[in-house]
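note to self — DONT lose this again. spent like an hour looking for the file last time. sequence + predicted structure for the chain T wanted, 240 res
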Amino acid sequence: MQPAAMYTLVFVALVAVAIVVQLIVHMARTDPRDSRAIAERELRLNTLQPGERVFRMVSVFKRPAIDYFRATRGLLVLTDKRLLYLGLEPRDLLAAPDLPPTFEERDFPLDTLVHVSSGRTFFGIAKAVVITTPNEQLKLGVPSAAWPQADLIVVGMAVRHDRAVQQRAQQRALLAKAETQRREAEAARRKAKFYTVRRGDALGSIATIWNTTPDKLQEWNHLSGNKIRVGQTLMVRPAL
C-alpha cells in the first residue's frame, strides 16, 4: 500500500473514532437516565385531568428523523379517557443544566379513527407501538423488558376500537330507524284524513272536531247540503 493511501486511511479512521466518541458523549449528556421518573411526575402533576384514571403505562422512546440519535424518552399511558404519549425531550448540548425539562405531549381519543398495533422502529431492531390516525402515524419504540406492558396496551386499544366500531354501528342503525320513522310520520301527516260518521254526528260538529268549516266539508266531499248518514266516510282534511 502506498504511504499516502495508508495515511489517508489512518486519518479517516481517526476522524470516525472522534465522531463516534463525540456522539456517545452527546447522547449521554442529553439523555437523562431518570427520564421515566421525570415523565411520571409531569404526568401526575400537570397532564392527567381531574378524575382521570390510568389503566396501563409503559416506557417508550421516539427517534425523530431530523435527529435520530437523540431519542425523546417518556411514557405511553392508557387512561379511561384517552391514549396519551408524554415524551421528555433531550436537553440541548449547549443549554444550562438547571433549565426545566420540556415535554412533547400527544393524546388520542378512544374512537374508531385511532388504530394501535405492534411494529418495529430503530432500523427494525426495536419493537414499537404504532399509532395510526387519518392524518399521521406515530411509532414509539419500547424496551424489550417493557414489551409485555406495551402489548397489553395494544390489546386494550384493539378491544376499545372494536367496541367503538360496534357502538358506532348501533348508533347508525338507531339514527337510520329514527329517520325512517320520521319520514313515515311526515308522509302520514301529509296524507288526506277521513272520518266515518257515527250516530249523533252533524256536519257542524265534525267540522269543529277537525278544525274546519261545514262549507269546506261540503266542498271536499261534494255534498249538496248538510245531510250525512251513519257509516258515511268524509274527507276532513285534504292531502298536503
